[in-house]
Amino acid sequence: MKRAAMLAIVFLCLAGCSSRLVTNTSRSAIEQMLLTGAVDKALAKFSLAEVEGAKVFLDFSNLAAVDAPYIKTAARARFCELGATLVDKVGEADLIAEVACGALGTEFKTAMVGLPPLPVPNSPIPLPEASLYKSSEQTGIVKILIFVHAKGAFVAANQYYAKADRNESFVFWWRFQRQDDVREGWERADLKLAKEALQSQDAHE
């Protein structure tokens, strides 16, 4: 009896539980990085000799997109990278560049070879999926229009399309990825930062 009581006390001391609140943002990080990655690719295609050395006013009044603040900053950075001097007033500008977004969104598709979940009679729990091969593909797609004019006089207008992909596949339980622009994007960014840090260090020695 005493032994049973001691075991019960030990069990009560060991038993317990803990929990923490887990929340998720309304948009996943993968979705946001696919979209902004596509924006980066599209703006990287923009090149115009006339903006080098020119004072440019960027007009975002017609820009309506889910990640508009990122597009604005990335567009400013791209024009500066090409040698433009950005101005805040139209009257100070040699050129005006209107930036609009025709599309910015994600596409998702899946494919499977195998058996989908099957209902079980008189049971709320179906038989689990049994897949030999399964793949999923999520793509961020963007279309950006950049119209450059000299206070009404046409200079250039082009549409820039780009996409960013993240694919993963499973053969039984083996997972592999054919393409992951999200990972490649942050690896390129980290490599660029490392090179800049090394160059800065060398310049100060």
Keywords:
alpha/beta, 4 helices, 6-stranded mixed β-sheet, 205 residues, 6 strands, elongated
Your description of this structure?
The structure is a single chain. With 205 residues, this protein is an alpha/beta fold. It has helices at 2-14, 29-44, 68-81, 181-203; strands spanning 55-59, 85-86, 95-115, 130-150, 153-171, 174-176. It has a six-stranded mixed sheet. Strand 1 (55-59), helix 3 (68-81) and strand 2 form a beta-alpha-beta unit. Helix 2 runs parallel beside helix 3. The longest helix has 23 residues, at 181-203. It is elongated, with a radius of gyration of 27 Å.
H/E series:
HHEHEEEEEH
| Assembly category | single chain
Shape: elongated
Distance between the termini: 79 Å
Radius of gyration: 27 Å
Low-confidence stretches: none
Structural class: alpha/beta
Give the % helix: 25-40%
The number of E-state strands comes to: 6
- Average pLDDT confidence is 88
Sheet with the most strands, sense and barrel status: 6 strands, mixed
Task: Provide a count of the helices.
Answer: 4
Strand order of the largest sheet: 2-1-3-4-5-6
Instruction: Estimate what percentage of residues fall within beta strands.
Output: 25-35%
